Amino acid sequence: QVTLKESGPVLVKPTETLTLTCTVSGFSLSNARMGVSWIRQPPGKALEWLAHIFSNDEKSYSTSLKSRLTISKDTSKSQVVLTMTNMDPVDTATYYCALSYGGFDYWGQGTLVTVSS
Amino acid sequence: QSALTQPRSVSGSPGQSVTISCTGTSSDVGGYNYVSWYQQHPGKAPKLIIYDVSERPSGVPDRFSGSKSGNTASLTISGLQAEDEADYYCCSYAGSYTSSAYVFGTGTKVTVL
User: Fold this and answer.
1) What is the pLDDT of residues A16-53, one digit of tens each?
2) Minimal CA–CA distance to B35: which of B68, B6, B58, B84?
3) CA–CA gap between residue B41 and residue B83 (Å, rounded)
4) CA B42 to mean position of chain CA atoms
5) Is A27 touching B (CB cutoff 8 A)?
6) How close does chain B come to A34, measured CA to CA in Å?
7) DSSP string for residues in A38-52
8) Closest partner residue to B104 among A47, A63, A110, by Cβ?
């Protein structure tokens, strides 16, 4: 059974750096063809793709947020980490990690991050 | 990378069919056969219902179908049921390492009348 679970702070202050961890079980991050994305959704708004790490460790980022994002993985820990710098209230959202194989086949439950002083 | 364009809302009566469009460009929808669709109920994580334009994951009812023509992909729900009332998002592969790999649509709310 494949599961993903996001963890990280629920509240961050403006200008701080957000670090989120996605812990996966039921599959290996070294599995070919698989990748993991981070996707966010502000309250009441649409999904926004942020970053993706491929099975070969190549990375891709949203062009509009590229300067603020870093994605990495630790295969031995079955974790994918996203850092986002210089947080702003507009970054308040539910952050999801999702496993891609065909589409985004499996999703975590999401974690709501609020940016406020 | 701009979001793919979807209608804000569509509605239909139980048993009817509804179609949601998803319009992109030749750099995303039109350039790859990697369009996927997601269903999201309030307070829940999205669920994959179509991938690779028209493939259904195991367990997804066959009344959900996908297609693509040029830069526009479509999701059709046939035999609409009450539990189909949800938000729907398309997503397309849009490149690789040097550009945004994926882009989502603006989302469509489906209402069952």
Assistant:
1) 999 999 999 998 888 877 899 999 999 999 999 999 99
2) B68
3) 9
4) 17
5) no
6) 14
7) EEEE-TTS--EEEEE
8) A47
